[in-house]
Amino acid sequence: MSGETIFGRIQVSPRAISSIVAHTVLRCYGVVGMAPATVRDGIAEILQVENLHRGVGVHVVEDHIVIDLYVIIEYGTRVSEVAHNVMESVKFSVEQALSMPVSEVNVHVQGIRVSDRD
C-alpha cells in the first residue's frame, strides 16, 4: 500500500498491515488464536505471537485492501457471530490506521478449540 503527499511517498508493507490485523483479531471475543493458511493432517496449530503474520493474507487490489484471516475459534461460541465480529473489527481497525478502504475481509475458520479452564 502506498500514497503520495506533497512531502513525498508513504509506503506500508503487507507485513505491517498483517500486524495490525493480527492484533485486532486476537482482541475479538471467541477467537482462541491465529492459524497458518495451510492445515497439515487436519490439525490447525495456534501460532505464537512472533508468527501471527502467517495467519493473515493481505492483498492490495486497485487501491482497496483484501484480507484473508485464518483463525481458531472457541468451542461453544457461535462461529458465524464470531466471524462477523472479526470482519467488522478488522475492517474498522485497518481503515482507521491507514485511511484506505478495505473491500473484503475473509475469515477462514481452521479449527475449533476448547479453552483451558482452571
In short:
With 118 residues, this protein is of the alpha+beta class.
Tell me the span between the first and last alpha carbons: 44 Å
- Counting DSSP H or I runs of 4 or more residues, the number of helices is 2
CATH class: Alpha Beta
- Spatial shape: elongated
The helix/strand series, from N terminus to C terminus, equals EEHEEEHE
Could you characterize the architecture of this molecule?
The protein has two helices and six strands. It has 118 residues and is of the alpha+beta class. Strands 3, 4, 5 and 6 form a four-stranded mixed beta sheet that branches. Strands 1-2 form a two-stranded antiparallel sheet. The longest helix has 20 residues, at 79-98.
Write the topology of this structure.
Layout: E1 2-5, E2 8-11, H1 14-26, E3 31-34, E4 56-61, E5 64-74, H2 79-98, E6 102-113
Parallel strand pairs: 5-6
Antiparallel strand pairs: 1-2, 3-5, 4-5
